[in-house]
Amino acid sequence: MADPKNPIAFVADGTIPPSPPPANQTGPVKWAKDNLFSTPLNSLLTLAALFCIYAILSGSLPWILNGLWTTSSLAECREILQGTTGACFSVLTERWHQLIYGFQYPADAYWRPNIAFLLLLIAIAPVLFFDLPRKLLIFTAIYPFLAYWLIWGGTIMVPIIAFLGCAGGGFVFQKFGKSNFAAGFFGGIIAAFAVWIIGGALVPETANDNAMLTAVPSRDLGGFMLNMMLGVTCVSLSLPLGIALALGRQSNMPLIKWICVIFIEFVRGVPLITLLFVASVMLSFFFPPESTVDLFLRVVIMITMFSAAYIAEVIRGGLAALPKGQYEAADSLGLDYPQAMRLIILPQALKISIPGIVNVAVGLFKDTTLVSVISMFDLVGMIRGPILASTDWNGVYWELLGFAALLFFVVCYGISQYSQWLERRLATDHR
Amino acid sequence: MTTLADPPKEQFKLSMLINDTRYRSLTFQALAAIALALMFWYLGNNLIQNLRAAGLNISFDFLGEAAGYDINQTLIEYDSQSSHLRAAIVGALNTLLVAFLACITATVFGVVAGVLRLSNNWLVSKLMAFYVEIFRNVPVLIWIIIIFTIMTAVLPGPRAFRGDDAEASMLFNAVAFTNRGVYIPLPWFSRGIFDSAALNWLLVLIVLGGSWFASRKIGQWASKVQEKEGVRPKTLWFTLGVWIAPFAVLMLIMGLSWQMPELKGFNFQGGIKLGGPLIALWFALSIYTGAFIAENVRAGIQAVSKGQTEAASALGLRPRRVMNLVVLPQALRVIIPPLISQYLNITKNSSLAIAVGYADITATLGGITLNQTGRAIECVMLLMLFYLTVSLLISMGMNIYNASVKLKER
Q: ipTM value of the model?
C-alpha cells in the first residue's frame, strides 16, 4: 500500500498476474510464422508449395466432382458433358466385374472368389494379430486348400488329398521331430508324398465332370483377383523358402552355402521380367514331355523364387544384426541347431527383419502387375487389353489408370501401416 | 590298484552319420549334392527329350541372320538387314542409355525430395511425404503407362506445328514437344578436325579432361600456398579460365553449329529425336525411384547423431560448413550403399520398356527376335547373362566404393 507520508515510494506486495502473450506469439499466426515463414527462403518454398497444391487441385477437382457414373460408353459421356471437364467413371461401374475378376471367369461363380476373399481375411487375422486366440490358426492351415477349391472349383477330392498329405507329413514331423529333427523332417516329407501318390491314384479321371463346383481353368482367372492371388500365394510361399535360403547362406557347410549364394545372386541380378519370360516360354521345356503345367503355376514358381531371394537377403541382415552372445547363449544351454534357431535366433532375427520383409512383400505385390507383359490379364492387363481396346471405352485412360493406381495404393499403404504397427507392438527394448 | 584300460575302440555305426557332429555336416552336404545332381539330371533329361520332340537344338546361329525389323531409336547404325546380334547390341545400348539417364535424374529428384522432407517448413515436408508415399505404393508399370499416355494424349501431333498461325509452337524455335517424341537441336562441327563425328567428340572429351586435371592442379597449388603462408590465393578466375578458354577455342576451330529440327513432310527432320517411349520410361523410372532415394537420403541424414551438428556449431562453424564438413560426409556413408542398389533397380526396371515399346534389350532380343526365331532358351539365356553382367559390374563398383569410404576402425 502506498505510504501516505511518502506517496512516491511504491512496493508491490504481490506478483503481477502474467499477461497473455502478444497476439503474434500465439495461435495459428505463431504456428504459421514458425513453420511456414521462418526465413525468406522458407516463405518462398511455402508459396511454391501452395501453388503446386493449387495447380493439382484446380486441375483435378472439377474433373472428379463433375464425373459421370452411369453412362454406357465414352461417346455417351461426352454427349452429356457437352465439352465441360468431367471424368467418365462409368467405365468403372460398367466394367467393374472385368476389372476385378477378369473377362473369362464365369459370371455365375463370382460369389466363389468373394467368399474366398472374405475367408482370407479370417484366415490371415491370427497371423497378423497374434493377440487373437491361437485356435484360429487351424482355420489358417485349412484355408489354402479351401480357397483353391472355391476359386478353381472341380472335384473336392484334390484339395482334400493335398490337405491330408500335408497333415500326415506334419503329424510324422510332430511325432519324431521332437527327438530327432532330421528323422522327423525327412519322414514327414516321405509321408506326405506317400499320401499324395496313393490319394492321386484314387481320384477318378472324370471326377471334375459332375463336381459340386464347376471347374474353372487357370487361364480364365484375371483382373485384380489375379494380382491378389499371386501376391498372397507368392509371399506366403517365399517366406519359408527365404528363411531356408538365409540359413543356408549362413551355414558353415561350404556346399550348401555356395548353392544358396549362387541362387540368391543369380535371381537378384536379373529383372523379374526375364524370370517371367522363363515361366512363359522356357520353363515348359524343363517339365516332363507329356505334362502340361499351367501358366499360373509356372508364374507362381518363378515369382516365389524371385521374392525368396530378396527375403533371404533381408533375413540374412537380421541374422547378422543379432549379437554373437545370443548364439553363444543358445550353445551354452545345450540346444542343438534346429532348437537354437527355432527358439532363440529366428524369432529375434525375424523381428529385426520385419520392415525389410514388408518392403519385399509390398514390392512383390506391385510386381504382380508385370504378368500383364506375358499376356496374362491381371488388372493392368485388363485395362491395357480388352477394356481400352473396346470401341465403347477407347480413350478413357485417366479414370482406369487412376483407379488401378488407387487400388494398389490402398493395399500397399495398408500393408506398410500394418508393419509399422507391428514394429511398435513388438518393440521390447523399452527405449 | 586300478588299471587304466584303453577307451573302448570306437566302432562306426550308421546312426553316427546323423548323430555325430563330425560326420553330420558331411552327410548333409553329400545329400545336398546328390539331390542337386538328381535335379539337374531330371531337368536336363526333360530338356533334351522336349527339344528332340520339338525338333530343336541349342544353337546360336540365328544371331548372325538378318533381323528384318526396324528399331525406332538407335544409338549405332542399324537397319532391318542387320543381324539379330546387332539388334541385341542396339537394345543393350538403349537399356544402358535409359538406365544412365534415369540414374542421374532419380538422384536429383531423390536428394531434393529427401532434403525437403526434413525441412522445417511444415507444408513442404508434408507435400514431399505425399509425393514419396504416392510413388512408392503404386507399381512402376502403372506410372510408366500413365506418363506414356499423358505424352501421347496431351502433347500435339507434328501436324499442329504447321502453318503460319500454328496451334503449337516450338520452344525458342529449337525444341519441339510432340506426341511422337521431343526434338532437340543436334550439335555438330562444320570444320571438324577428324572426319568421323565420334572422334571429334572424343577430342572434346579429352580437352575437358585436361581442363579438369589442370583445375585440380590449381587447387592443390592453392592448398600448398595456404599451408605455407596461411592465406589461400584467389583461384576462381584461373579455374574458370582453364575450364572455358580451351573449350571455347576448340569450339571455334571446329566450328560448332546446331542442326535445328524442322518440320518437313509429315514429321520433324533433323536434330536429335528423343522418342516418346524413351522419355516416358526415363521420367517414370526417375520419379518412381526418386521416391525411394528420398527415403534413403532422409534416413542417412537422420542417422547422423544430433550431437555432431551441435558439436560442429559449438566450434563456430556456419550452418553451411556444418552440413558440408560434418553431416554430409557421415550421411553419405549411410546413403551410398542403398543408393547404388537403387541404381541396380533402375537398370533392372528399365526392362519394363517392353510395355511402352522402347527398344531396349528385353524388347529386341527377348521380344521380337525371340518371337521371330522361336529360340526361347537361347534368347532368355543371353538376356539373363546381359543383366547379370551389368548387375555384377554395378555391385562390384559399389563394393569398391564402400570399402574406400568405410570407417577405418581398428
A: 0.86
Residue B200, SS3?
helix
Share of chain B above pLDDT 90, in %: 17
Q: How many CB atoms lie within 10 A of CB B66?
A: 13
- pLDDT of the residue at A6: 65
The counts of H helices and E strands in chain A are: 19, 0
B 282-341 → A contacts, CB under 8 A: none
**Which DSSP string do the residues of A153-169 spell out, in sequence order?**
-B-THHHHHHHHHHHHH
Which helix (DSSP H) or strand (DSSP E) does residue B93 occupy?
Answer: helix B84-117
The predicted pLDDT at position B59 comes to 77
CA-wise closest residue to A295 among A282, A308, A313, A311:
A282
Rg of the Cα atoms in chain B: 30
Helix ranges, A15-156 (H): 27-35, 40-65, 74-81, 90-94, 96-101, 111-128, 137-152
Rounded Cα distance between B107 and A170, Å, is: 50
Residues of A in Cβ contact (< 8 Å) with B346: none
| N-term to C-term CA, chain B | 57
Q: Does B43 touch chain A (CB under 8 A)?
A: yes
In this prediction, residues B289-314 reach a mean pLDDT of 91
* CA torsion, ordered B369, B374, B378, B380, to nearest 10 deg: 70
Name every chain A residue with its beta carbon within 8 A of the beta carbon of B112.
none
Residues of A in Cβ contact (< 8 Å) with B142: 369, 380, 401, 404-405, 408
Please name which of B358, B19, B74, B394 lies closest in space to residue A336, comparing C-alpha atoms: B19
According to the model, what pLDDT value does residue A62 have? 85
For chain B, give the mean pLDDT: 83
Chain A: closest CA distance from residue B70 (Å): 21
Q: How far does Cα A173 stand from its chain's mean position?
A: 30
So what's the pLDDT on residue B386?
A: 92
Q: pLDDT per residue over B151-174, tens digit each?
A: 887 777 776 676 666 666 666 667
pLDDT at B41 over 90: yes
Q: What pairs with residue B184 in β-bridges?
A: B272
Q: What are the pLDDT digits (tens) for B256-283?
A: 777 777 776 667 776 777 778 888 899 9
The H-or-E segment that residue A378 falls in is none
Could you give the CA distance from residue A31 to residue A47 in angstroms, rounded to a whole number? 16
The amino acid at B225 = V
CB proximity under 8 Å: B 120-149 to A: 120-124, 127, 133-134, 136-142, 145-146, 149
The cell numbers describing A383, all together, are: 485395362
Residues (pLDDT < 70) of chain A are 1-7, 9, 207-209, 429-431
Q: Which of A63, A336, A101, A412 is nearest to B24 (CA)?
A: A336
List the single residue in A with minimal CA-CA distance to B134.
Answer: A409
